[in-house]
Amino acid sequence: MGIKLVCQNKKARFDYFIDEVLEAGLVLLGPEVKSLREGRASLVDSYARVKKGEVFLYNMHITPYPYAHHVGLDPVRTRKLLLNKREIRRLIGKTVEKGYTLIPTKVYFTKGRAKIEIALAKGKRKYDKRQALKEKELKRDMEEAKNWDRN
Q: Comparing C-alpha atoms, which of 144, 50, 44, 146 is closest to residue 94?
């Protein structure tokens, strides 16, 4: 049964230094699950926050399922994430530190259950992003030169 990727946040690695990655379950309603199975979700501008000992996901957009007319759901409603208490306590300790935030990086299905990968991350400055672009370009040039030598 493998993993079926629904969506991922590609800009997260560009905008943040990722320190730690956790897998969490999502509390969803039926039509949301059906929309996710069709790949109708977006993690752009979404984030997670610890509130009263629970972790919530904000601004994740799940397009309404077109055949569920009887349920009027907000596409960007706040959703609860399922983590155990030990993980939540550790996240509280880390997010209190200056500059750390919780960023969702992937949404996927494994064994029929919707999971989300959240990362404990620290924001990059503008010069850090430039450095990352230079490294990426240098790596691409090296690969291109290697492929050129083979031919």
A: 50
Entry pTM? 0.76
Domains of the chain (ranges; CATH) run 3-124 (2.40.280.10)
pLDDT in tens, 88-135: 888 888 888 777 889 999 999 998 899 999 999 888 777 777 887 888
- What tens digit of pLDDT does each residue of 9-56 get? 888 888 888 888 999 999 988 888 888 888 888 898 899 988 888 999
Please choose, from the candidates 24, 12, 8, 22, the residue with its C-alpha nearest in 3D space to the C-alpha of residue 114. 24
Whether the Cβ atoms of residue 32 and residue 49 lie closer than 8 Å to each other? no
Q: Are the beta carbons of 119 and 81 closer than 8 angstroms?
A: no
Q: Coil, strand or helix: which one is 127? A: helix
Beta-carbon-side half-sphere exposure of residue 71 (alpha carbons within 13 Å): 14
Question: Residue 2's Cα: distance from chain center in Å?
Answer: 19
Which of 84, 76, 69, 79 lies closest to 29 in space, CA to CA?
79
